[in-house]
Amino acid sequence: MKVISYNLRKHRAASExxxxxxxxxxxxxxxxxxxxxxxxxxxxxxxxAQATQGNRLGLAVYYRANTFQVQSIRTIGLKKSLxxxxxxxxxxxxxxxxxxxxxxxxxxxxxxxxxxxLTALNRLRRxxxxxxxxxxxxxxxxxxxxxxxxxxxxxFKENLSQTVRDHGYTLSLSDDHxxxxxxxxxxxxxxxxxxxxxxxxxxxxxxxxxxHRPILITAQPG
Length: 222
Fold this sequence. Notes:
About 20% of the residues lie in helices and about 40% in strands. By secondary structure, the chain is of the alpha+beta class. It has a single domain (about 1-220), classed as Deoxyribonuclease I, Chain A (4-Layer Sandwich), CATH 3.60.10.10. The mean pLDDT is about 90.
């Protein structure tokens, strides 16, 4: 299966989504920084599973309806940073969807995730990631889980990798930087954590109108 994750930069890159779907034919599309009211119900052959409602900039998950059926959905609020408390940009930072593969007969969990901004401490983001992965298991204990999105974690990834491993998950980065707008902040921001998936590759796609580059995850439940 193919999953694309894309931070739309305050919805600016929304106009690119149809072309992105046509070129790469993902099975699931996970979005961050959406203007939820401006999102279509479908993008090419993908249909919306759900979008968050409590955020100024929300999350959304689309899926291929001829491949999957939605079994259940959960939005998750995480521990807030000072930025969240003062400006309230995002209450719901995880959107998880349990999908049933119609042909293969198995269920998986795929989630769109957006961590606290760089003004927060890495310690808080690690807490958010651990909490998100724990809460996603309530959609189906023991099911394969793939959480993709903007982790806002460009440096000291060895600490994050260890945290994720201690939680029983694998951290996977793409083949190139995903954020290149400002030289001082360049690095891998968008990646995946998973359990029960064989991650074949993660490709960083070309940058357009967002300050993030989309990533394309090719994976197989194992």
